[in-house]
Amino acid sequence: MLIVTEHFPVLVIVISMLSAFTILIAGRWNKKTCLPISIATISVQLFMALFILNQVITRGTIHYRLGGWAPPWGIEYVIDAFNAYVLVIVLFICLLTAIYAKRSIEREQPHRIVPFYVVFQLLITGLCGITVTGDIFNLYVFLEIASLAAYALIAVAGRRALKASYNYVIMGSIGACFYLLGAGFLYAVTGSLNMADLSHLLPPLYENKVVQAAFVFFVVGMSIKMALFPLHIWQPDAYTYAPSAVTVIIAAAMSKVSIYAFIRVFFSVFTTEFIRIYVPIATAISWIAAIAIIVGSIIAIMQSNLKRMLAYSSVAQVGYIVLGVGLYSTQWGLYGALMHILNHALTKGCLFLVAGAIIYRYGLWNIHDFVGLGKKMPYTCAAFTIAALSMIGVPPSVGFITKLCLLAASLEAVEYAFVAVILASTLLNLVYFWRVIERMYFVKGEGEEEKEIRKDEAPMSMVLPALILGSLCIIVGILWLAGTETPLLPVVDHAVNALLGTGVVAAP
Amino acid sequence: MMEWLIGEVFAKYNYWVSIVLMLIGFYAMIAKGNLIKKIIGLNIFQTAIFLFFISLADIRGGTEPIVSEEIIHMGYVYVNPLPHVLILTAIVVAVATTAVALALVIRMYEEYGTMEEEEIIEKEREMGL
Hints:
By secondary structure, chain A is mainly α. In chain A, about 75% of the residues lie in helices and about 0% in strands. Chain A has a two-stranded antiparallel ribbon with strand order 1-2.
C-alpha cells in the first residue's frame, strides 16, 4: 500500500489515460459501460488528489522522479499546495461534469457517446498532467493533449461549433507555439527544462535579453490559452457552440488549468525579483486585467444568448484572477487570485450546468424566452440564482470573499482605479444577471396569469451537480467568514507561500 | 554595417532563417482567408520553431552523442541529443494538431461547401444562425 501511494502523482495521470482506452474497447461491446468506467476513474483520481493534498499539507512538497531519473535530466513531478489545490478543484468539476454529461450527451450527441467519453478522459489526462508536472516541456506536451481533446469535444456539436473549434485550433496553436519558443529560449541559455532547476539557474541571467524574451513569449502564449482580453476572440464562440457538458468542463476546469500554468511560470520559473526589477510587467497586466473586467462585463450585458453572456462574463472573471496576480506584491493580491480560481470554478461551472439543463428541457437559449422558468424549473433556477449571487459578490458567498481580497489588495497598492473597476464591475454583473433572474421569477408571460404552470424539472443527474456547486459557493464562503478550522483555508495560504517562496512549505 | 552583417546575420544565419519562416507562417495564419492556407501557415510556423531547436543543438565538428571515456579523453565534442528528442515529441503534437484542423475543414466543407472564411460567414448569415 505504501508503495502505491508514493506513485500517486503519476498514477493520477496514467489511470485516466488507461481508462480512455478501456472505454473505447468496452464501449464497442456495450455503450452503457462508458459512463460507469468514466465516473469510477474520476472518483479514484479525485481520491488520489485529496490524498496528495493531505500529504502536501502535512509533509510538504512532493517530488516524484519519473522512472527514477534524477531531476535536471529526468522529468520530475513536483506537487506543492498550489498544484494539489488546483488538481482537487479540477477533478471535482470533472466528476460532476461526467455525471451531468450522461443525459446531456444522450440527447445532444446520441451517436457519439463512446468517442465522447474517450476524448473526455483524454482531456482529463491532459489537465491532470499540466497540474502535476514540474518540467516546462512536459507541461507543453500535456497542454497540447488537453487542447487537442478540447478542440475535438467542441467540434462534436457540428455546424457553427466547427468554425469555433477551428478558430480555437489556430489561436490555441499559436499560444502553444509561443510557449514552446519560450521554453526553447530558456533551454538555449540554461540547458535545463526543470522548473526548480531553472529558478536556480536563471537569477544570474536575468539581464539577458533572451531570458526576457522567453518570459514575454510565455506570458503571451498562456494569455491566449486562458483567453485574457484582448486575446479572447476564440473563447465566446467556443463556449457558446460547444455541447453543454463540454462547455462546463472547458469553462470551469480547463481555463483554471491554463491560469495555473500561467501563474506557475510567472512565479516558480521566474521569480518575483525578476518581475519587479527586470521586466516590470505587473502594472501593465493589472491594467489589462482591469480593462478585461470592464469590457467583458459590458459585452456580456449586450448578449441575448445565455451561454454567450456567460462566456463574456468568463473573460471578465479571468481578468479578476490576473488582476490578483498583478497585485502579487500586496498581502491579499495573490490570495484573492487563488480564491477566485476556486470561486470561478464553482460559480461558472454551476451557471453553465444550468444553461445546459435549460437547453436540455426546453431548448431555450435566448434570455428573453426565460419568462416563468422559475416556476417550471425551481431547483435549476435556484442553483442559477445562488451562483449568480456569488458571482456578483453578495455575502456570504465565495465571490464576496474574492472581491474583498482584491479590494484590500488594490487599496494596499494605492491603486484607486482598480477599486473603482471592481465596484463598477459588481454593478455590471448585477445588471446582466438581474436580466436573467428577473425573467425567471418576476416577469409574467402574456395570458399566463390564469393558467397553472406545471413543474417540469430537468433530470436529477443534471440538476444535482448544479445544486451541489451552488451550495458549495455559499458553504465555502460561510466557512471562510466564520474562520472555522477547515482544511481548505490553510491550503490557499500554503499555495501563496509556495509561489512567493516565503513560507514554510516552499521547496527545500 | 558590413561587420554587423557578417557578425550578426551570416554567422547566425540559422536563427534568421527560422525567424523569417516563423513570420511567414504567422502572416499566413492571420491574413489568409482560406482555411487550408491557414493550416499551411501553422505548419510553417511550427516547423520554424523545430528548426530553431535543432540548430540550437548542433556544434560545428560535433560527433554523434555516444559518450565514452575514450571520446571525452580525445577532446571530441558531441551534438546535444536532447533538443532532437524534444522536437520528436513536438512533431507528433504538430501532426495531431494538423490532423484535427484538417478534419474540421473537411466537416466545414461538407456543411458549407466552401473553404473560404468569408463565404462561410456569409452562408451562416444567410441561414440565419
